[in-house]
Amino acid sequence: MKIIITEEQSGILNNIINGVVISEAWSQKQVNDIIQPTERPSKADPSKGLYRKMIEKLLMDNISSLEEIGVENRNGHYFIKGTDNGSPLSYMNTHYGVARLFANYFNVPSDATKEEAVNIIGNGLQREFNDIFITGNELTKEIYGALGHSKTQGDKNEIIAKNYILYRHKDHIKSIDIVAGTGGALDKSGVDIVVTLNNDRKINYQVKPFLYYGVSEDGNTVIYGVKGRTPIYPHHHYWIFVNENKVLEVRSKNLKAGVRQRDVMFLPSEDVVSKSDNLKPWVRKIKEE
Q1: Is residue 205 in some structural domain?
Q2: CA distance 160 to 211
Q3: How many Cβ atoms from other residues are within 10 Å of residue 14's Cβ?
Q4: How many domains are contained in the chain?
């Protein structure tokens, strides 16, 4: 695979490879500055996570209708009945594009507060749930189009990761399941795979796509092109990075975000647990003078 990087990205990679870790805050604009679909619920601040909680309640309130069209809820995550294939609906509570569609479709005023915006969207979705999600209307195709890539890629990566874990650790595994895990309902920043060992110990895995990895001079394994913004939580025991049929398994204890989490992550090289036989470290080419 040929990697093309900009001059700015090249400078960032040089800093990281030379052992300099740059900390940079996210600056991505929230959808309409009011909906904030990725905002996590907070007991200390009840205004946080309103959009997430509204979507999660909406789906659970209509679970019987979803089951009739072959969608089931398992541990807070939505699957196509009888398979390990996730339903696109699982991504609806955190998807910026879908939040924007809802805001436009239900005519949320630009000066609405967060609470007002979530109420307008929630009431509209509850009122038109069957038309949108069961029968289907002009909005349905747009919603599933926006969710489709997340769903397709997420399914593929989780299944690849599951098969890899079985391949590497099969003698120690009693069971392995693709789940939503220990996060809130439908919380895809939680745990993607739970492994139960022969001694009944539970191991939680987070699955993330990546582009390539290298080894820095200061002894870090540097993982480039990580997609998404999932923080590293104490309940994550291991992370699995997936790139087509290439997999890198690492301990999460010392895993840190670099420039931006979806740009690069790093950890001590000894925390690499295992990797696919066809996965070779990326070596930066030195330009000839």
Answers
A1: yes
A2: 15
A3: 11
A4: 1
